Amino acid sequence: MPELLSPESSQSQPAVPDYAALLRFLVEPFLESPAALKVDCEFHPARSRIWIRLAFESSDKGRVFGRGGRTIQAIRTVVEAAAQAVGHTVYLDIYGEREKSDSAKREMPRGRSSDNQRPTMRR
């Protein structure tokens, strides 16, 4: 049977959350290949700051971020709440494969040519 701590001792030393496990629990359901998820936590005890780096395949980016970034913001909120409960500050960085530049994906606006001339007026 596990040893139970008295209420006095548990209040003096709050349990430190397992940030890596918490993030895995929150993010893995959104991934097609959960094995590709990489979580790295760096703790600076002098300042009570936690830097968490999260990496996954770029094909899962849309599911993890969600519409308008709502899903990732909810994940950040849960992790920040866990950190605040023990007096920590959390920084969450998300890494992924860089996709081709956005300029290559964008189309030229209608009525403009590729040499940046003014649009022609239609009558």
UniProtKB/TrEMBL annotation:
<feature type="region of interest" description="Disordered">
    <location>
        <begin position="100"/>
        <end position="123"/>
    </location>
</feature>
<protein>
    <recommendedName>
        <fullName>KH domain-containing protein</fullName>
    </recommendedName>
</protein>
<dbReference type="GO" id="GO:0003723">
    <property type="term" value="F:RNA binding"/>
</dbReference>
<keyword id="KW-0963">Cytoplasm</keyword>
<dbReference type="InterPro" id="IPR020627">
    <property type="entry name" value="KhpA"/>
</dbReference>
<keyword id="KW-0694">RNA-binding</keyword>
<dbReference type="Pfam" id="PF13083">
    <property type="entry name" value="KH_KhpA-B"/>
</dbReference>
<feature type="compositionally biased region" description="Basic and acidic residues">
    <location>
        <begin position="100"/>
        <end position="115"/>
    </location>
</feature>
